[in-house]
């Protein structure tokens, strides 16, 4: 990934009204995610990229930041505007940002 375009923002600094893309696996998503996030696992992103809005920045998050950095680099490579959420959902939770779980349990970062 050397030379790839991976702009990054701290989880605590992500604005509330952005398009937030969560690229974690389904079990991680179900355990806890940002309420407004859209879930597209990294493995299906290339097939589903047209589901993302054009012309607006996409903020990409995973568990700790590795998969989202890959997704951010790829999205920027194909001409989309993407920003990696540094530290992923672990930093999101640590910053006290809102989270919900799919099963009604208390949300946590799987």
From TrEMBL:
InterPro entries: GlpE_sulfurtransferase, Rhodanese-like_dom, Rhodanese-like_dom_sf
PROSITE patterns to which the protein is assigned, alphabetical: RHODANESE_3
Domain Rhodanese span(s) in chain numbering: 14-101
PANTHER family named among the record's database cross-references: FAD-DEPENDENT OXIDOREDUCTASE, PYRIDINE NUCLEOTIDE-DISULPHIDE OXIDOREDUCTASE
Name this polypeptide is given: Sulfurtransferase
